Amino acid sequence: MKKFFIFLIFVFSLFSLNAFSKDLKIGYVDFLKVYDEYKKTRDYQEIIEKKRSQKEEELKKKMQEIEKLQNKVNLLKDKEKEKEKENLEKLTKDFEDTRRKLFLDLKKERDEKLKEILQDIKDVINNYAKKNNFDVILNGEAILFSDSSMDVTSDIMKFLDEKYKK
Question: Terminus-to-terminus CA distance in the chain, angstroms?
């Protein structure tokens, strides 16, 4: 048993020496810069902005209908007023429900696209690291000081844009 433990310690020390003797290849990426300058991010931001504007126009039209009905209700007699008030309340509730649903749908779509974009970036970083024999690639936001030769941000951006064009 004692010989077995000595053998294990010997094997462990060989592996430890090998691990510590290896030179680590380390790089870093300015993740926010990559995200902001990624063409897919910019393209999607334009798309979501157009959708948001269209939805706001639809809501604006519905709001104008509600305002017209409100003005009409104010001019009516009491009996007629009650009937139109119910219509007004229904329209107002429908408006609020539609508005809530539209913005939740836009948020959901934006979140899904964000996940897709972040996954694209991570995949490119992983492939780049494997292809170029990096042991570690760090997020540049967490680095206080480093040699600029370790910055692989521009390479990552180039590969991302190439991947997106395909």
Answer: 61
Of the listed ranges 14-23, 43-52, 66-75, 143-152, the one predicted with least confidence? 14-23
- Report pLDDT digits (tens) over 92-109: 888 888 889 988 999 999
Any idea where the domains of the chain sit in the sequence? 22-165
As a whole number of angstroms, the distance between CA 109 and CA 49 comes to 12
SS3 33: helix
Diameter of the chain by CA atoms? 104
Residue 144 in 3-state DSSP? coil
pTM for this structure? Answer: 0.68
Q: Which two tokens stand for residue 119?
A: 């996954």
Which tokens go with 140?
């540049």
Instruction: Name the residue among 37, 41, 60, 8 with its Cα closest to residue 158.
Output: 37
Alpha-carbon distance 151 to 135, whole Å? 14
48, 61, 44: which is closest to 98 by C-alpha? 61
CATH of domain 22-165: 3.30.910.20
Average pLDDT, the chain: 82
